[in-house]
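seq:
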Amino acid sequence: MHHIVFLDRQSLKAEVRKPGFAHTWVEHVQTHPHEVAERLRGATVAITNKVPIRRDTLAQLPDLKWIAVAATGYDVIDVDACRERGVAVTNIRNYAVHTVPEHAFALIFALRRNLMAYREDVLHGRWQKETQFCFFDYPIRDLHGSTLGIFGEGVLGQATAQIARALGMKVLFADHAPPKATGVDFVPPEQVFAESDIISLHCPLTPASRHFIGKWQLQQMKRSALLVNTSRGGLVDETALKEALENGVIAGAGFDVLSQEPPINGNPLLDIRTPNFILTPHVAWASDQAMQFLADQLIDNIEALVANKPQNLVI
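struct:
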């Protein structure tokens, strides 16, 4: 009899079927870090989306055998400690292959055509005062013929590239240390920064990638360029980005992620009020279809572990 505990059920707006084996099931709307050890006491399977499970917590949970992460990113899990204790960790694969690229392009279209600036002007009566049928206060740039630079050639990066090519864009994938996807032509990161009209981030947050875009990298970009991040907030130095936007180093940015979520202690990007910056609350992954796919795969992963046929293992 397995005891399954879902730590943050509120994070998933989808139907979650119960596994097809003997078990007990407890779910919590949300869980604070100091509550994790007590709530997982006696559990053999933990489900978490964004609730951290760290080394000190794992040391208090001798019954825990598996952690099923209800997301692709698993930086909330101390995987080294799990490996040492023999705790298997699974994550979700390929569920956001449409929703994240579509959200990235929603940001790109809005910024490239300055939709936010024009909307603000209409709301404030600018159009009503015109002497002709339209006005051109802000640049409107086509995507066709422009260059999209992508950091991260996984399924999301490649799906984003597919949309870009369909729009007539040139795509540059930034080179990086192994492991690398096969069949992808890479160019040096310096070339991506220098030549891209838009840069879109689709790479994981690791110690090596934290703040890999800072003041120097932003200065290498075109002044007309956009930076779009639907991946992880910590990839970009947020203070440097705020300064770059304020000083016209780049033309705009669209972010769906911050380095701390929710940003209860504030964040430099929350202070930006200009229409060349769009911030959404980490919802790029959250289309109805994607969340249901995630929920189904989450239980598939757990059932596969119990059947001794593991899938989507992180470790």
